[in-house]
Amino acid sequence: MVCPHLDVTACKDKYSKDARILAKLTFTNIWKSLMPSFQFMSSKTDLYKTCEIMKMDIRYASQYEKKLELTNSYLAHLNQAQKEHDYYNANIINAVEDSKHNPNVVSSQILFKSFSEDLVSIVNRFTRINFNVAQRYLNGEGFQYYDFKNYFQAFKKLPHIQKYHHFYFTSQHSGIIFFKDNLDDNYESFTICPFSFNADTPLPTIDAKPLSQKRQEELYKEIAPYIDLPFRSIICSEPKIQNKK
Questions:
Q1: I need a labelling partner for 144 at 20 to 30 A (CA). Which of 12, 107, 116, 232 fits?
Q2: What is the bridge-based pairing of β-strands 205-206 and 145-146?
Q3: CB atoms within 10 A of CB 223
Q4: 195 is a domain residue
Q5: Which of the listed residues 67, 97, 127 is the one where a domain comes to its end?
Q6: CA separation for the pair 159, 24 (Å, rounded)
Q7: Of all helices (H) and strands (E), which one includes residue 129?
Q8: pTM score, whole prediction
Q9: Which phi and psi angles does 166 have, rounded to 5°?
Q10: Which strands, in side-by-side order, build the sheet including 188-191?
């Protein structure tokens, strides 16, 4: 039993004379001396697990040959990780540059903008020198919700997709995904769209279902009092009486 106080005798009197008591300070000192590398990471710590394990193996290797072998493996791992890092950054730069010269702007592209009059007024009221200007989707007509779930049912899933780390698409091979595991591997291909695909074809939409009578009454009674008067009738309007058949 770890005693949070220095007075071990007081802990024995509180719990039991036969209890094996260890002062918290003594426990902490033993912990730190036997496991100096053990620590609780903060939420902001982002250490690569494989690197940390390999460094620990090197630190505690007792034989010179084993330590040398582990060190070489660690350096090879760092070299491969750096290649992956450079490859990733290069692709990000290429993607940004390609997007600047991409003439294929399709009608199905979606712009997400605020649609609430209340939110628009807040943004416009508190912005400085018109640095931020609130815009509403379709001039306030509202959003359209697309039925992506059913739309993608016709597409094929790439088997074991989680084991691969590199992917790319190209307009020259529409409907085909290229993938590989390691950076030095050759790309493999898989057809995920086995049908003719037209990017300008409008997607099916989902009609918004009206609120139930119970939900309307709940909003009107419990939520409406907290909404500003100019918007109360819009957000939490008085429930409509539904005719029961």
A1: 232
A2: antiparallel
A3: 12
A4: no
A5: 97
A6: 53
A7: none
A8: 0.42
A9: -130, 130
A10: 166-168, 176-180, 188-191
DSSP helix, strand, coil percent of the chain (3-state; round to 5): 45, 10, 45
Which residue has tokens 């630190």?
A: 59
User: How many angstroms separate the CA atoms of 65 and 71, rounded?
Assistant: 10
- Residue type present at position 212: S
Structural domain contains residue 149: no
In a domain, 82, yes or no: yes
Range of the structural domain that residue 234 is part of: 210-240
Whether residue 133 contacts residue 124, with contact meaning beta carbons closer than 8 Å, is answered with: yes
How far apart CA 152 and CA 193 sit, in angstroms, is 9
pLDDT of amino acid 1: 54
The residue out of 31, 64, 97 marking a domain boundary is 97
User: How does DSSP assign 53-107, residue by residue?
Assistant: HHHHHHHH--SHHHHHHHHHHHHHHHHHHHHHHHHHHHHHHHHHHHHHT-----T
pLDDT at 132: 63
Query: In the prediction, which pLDDT does 187 show?
Result: 92
Pairing of strands 205-206, 188-191: unpaired
The answer on pLDDT for 110 being more than 60 is: no
Task: With beta carbons less than 8 A apart as the criterion, state whether 140 and 115 touch.
Answer: yes
Radius of gyration of the CA atoms of the chain, in A: 31
pLDDT tens, position by position, 116-160: 566 666 667 666 666 666 666 566 566 677 888 888 888 899 999
Mean pLDDT across 219-229: 86
Q: In whole angstroms, give the CA distance from residue 166 to residue 189.
A: 12
Which positions ≥6 away from 78 have C-beta within 8 Å?
Answer: 51
